[in-house]
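Please check the following for our workbook:

***
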Amino acid sequence: MVNENLHSKHRERLRERYLKDGIDSFEPHQVLELILFYAIPRKDTNGIAHALLNRFGSLANVLEAPVEELATVEGIGKSTAVYLNMFSQVIRKYEQDKAFKRKRLSDYASTGEFCLSLFKGRVYECMFLISLNSQNRVINYEKVAEGTVNETTVYPRELIRSAIANHAVKVVVAHNHPGGTATPSTGQSLILCKPQIWLQNDNII
C-alpha cells in the first residue's frame, strides 16, 4: 500500500509538471514514464522506462521499435508495445495531415515539407508517388515500395499504375535513406528529370 501511494504521488507530480511546463524540460526516461502511466496502471514505470532506453539507446529508437522487439523488454506486454509503437506513426499521420492541408506543392520548400512528413518514424527504405493535378495540387500519395534498412526496389509499372489511377498530370517520386545519407544508391536504375530535391536528416539540401 505504501509503495502504491508513492507511485501514485509520483505520477501526479509528473502529470502536474507536464500540465504546468510542458514536456520540453523532461528527460527521455521521464517522457517514457509519462507515456507508460496510461498503459501500465498502478505500477512503477521508472524502471521500465530505463530498461527501454538501455535496450534501444534513445527515446526515438524506443518509439520507432517494432512491437515484437518492444515486447521482449521485461514489464512490456503486447498491448503496451502496440501503444508505444503507435506514437511515431501518429506523429507521421499528424505531419502528413498538416502538410496535406497545404495541398499545393508550388516550390522546393513546400514539396520538401510534404515529402518529409511521409517519412517520419520510418526505419525502412521506401518510395512514395505523389500525384498532382495541373496546378500542382496534391491529388493523392501512395507508398509504392518498401524494402529493408538500406535498400528498396520499385517497379516502373507500380509508379505508372498509381499515376494513372489518380489521373495525375504531374508526379513527385519521394525516396528515403534512413541512415541519413543523401547520396543515390549504387546501381540505382530509376532516373528522374530535374529539378530534384535531396532530403538529409530531415532537412532539404
